């Protein structure tokens, strides 16, 4: 290039600063290099913000310009010849550069190009830092010693959703994000929730004694009822089916159930299906250390978000449709203390509880009447979600979201303080890695602090409802930090199957806070599936991300029990209680939780391809299809008139086959693709991102069935729902409908086939055998 400039200067005998310069530029999306000629020694540069740090973008708007005034005398013919030669040289150089375009184009691994003066100029593509160096940078940032001060900053004795204390904590989170150089914003919603009565308590009367518990269950039906008490163990479906098999009348009964195994909302919904008039929930006696007078708080909405605007965000300007969520119960529900429950249980008559329950209690009979009154107050509250972002350097419009609940019924140390502290520390750590460590994430990281989590992930769900069309295309994962530390004996993970491989590799890389070795060697041992993995439950904040929005999600926790932490939903959730549960290792466990979340989020924004295994769903679909197939044959044997000559399993099996082939084809495409090609990486990642989203049934209403995922959601549209419907047909249940089943069966089949079609990629690659 210097030789060309020298030649041009000599030909024109011009000033040394007037030369032709070639400027190569690249953009964030990997567009082709541009070639520009510039007659100036000046070079303008623009800088653009990245949330943390700056990207450099070098684009010149000056246009090529060559002008020479040629005379008409023979003397000037030599100048014409020289000009022709100049044009030839320029054309040759342009051709040479275009020929090298492929080598100079930005790739996934190469992000630097050198100008002729030797200066290294950054382009749009992020350099791929060695993963071991990324892990080392994170390890240098995270320390248990830093957590005590963070815990103190984000602790509060009372910060219920919508309160001033809740807002103050949100402001502290925003302040921290800004200190780290992150772009921040807030998201306001006006939601309706139920709080305790104006009198301060609801009431019940049993055997002439009135009690007034101050705990309550938001979204219960209001009113007063009288019915006979029925002890129903945990209130699970199998518990109630067992009672029904013993001809126990459940109609109009007030069911007495204990906490655990399933959510409050599921207990109430199960009781309502059996015709009960109310449900009383008390602390599990096996958790006797909770105390006899401890009040319980919670909600009974079988769903998430504001139940008075199902499927719609509760923005202030939204014209709400006049509908309520189908998950709102129509029966009364109330919590009572352990002492109150023991008093009732001791006076119950009737038959003994089933032996399977290993309970000394009686079931109760018609003489055990109880009167319950619920008068909760419906109120509107403004809640605020707060966010910060670290923008990516290649695919900035694709992001992983990591979030934590900020509100609580009382101190909420384990429920909200620890998670919020981990969120803030992780934001600080990764921000510093970007600013001072040289780490450049390929994709963006969004940090979120949610409000109204105690009322059923209201803040998070309203955000999802408000921006669903955008999030479903750009948010590729959610990491939940709620309740990450409640003990130290076990480590549990609930996640989308797409993320199981990422979880496994993370556990192998993060050291245990309890003993030498990795988390995998201590907790997973030889079988991660049975020792670590657990189902993602309805009351988990990650559930609406997965089942409502189709975003692969993960939630994890250090715990002392397989069940929930006993102090959740009480005013006893303090640092002192958690110290007892963890052996005074709260900071060390919070550090380990930060490393787990950090490793997962950094892997997701570091690698060329998203760490998601689409073939993990093959086994799940195959097992569900096999279960349905066996149940269909069972129905045909017992009720042949219902399905004979109408239903065939061929369609569903073919859809499963299509998905299996499409997932295998994607794996082959990855093996045969150039991972240094930015556009190729983006195309493959788009196919991966679409999998979870395409398992959402497009044929159901978000009001009736908000959790539309046919494999991990809930409702009659799911494969599990189809199996249950077949069981009802087999038992000749009066509510079983063969025509409705066939319709749901066809829609579920086509949902799987549609997912397979999307996964296959281009339209000419589709499998149309179905």
UniProtKB/TrEMBL annotation:
One Gene Ontology molecular-function label: transferrin receptor activity
UniProt-annotated location(s): Cell membrane; Melanosome
SUPFAM superfamilies, per the entry: PA domain, Transferrin receptor-like dimerisation domain, Zn-dependent exopeptidases
Domain (Peptidase M28): residue spans on this chain: 385-583
Pfam families the record matches: PA, Peptidase_M28, TFR_dimer
A GO CC term assigned to this protein in UniProt: melanosome
Family assignment from sequence similarity: Belongs to the peptidase M28 family. M28B subfamily.
Listed name of the protein: Transferrin receptor protein 1
Organism (species): Pogonophryne albipinna
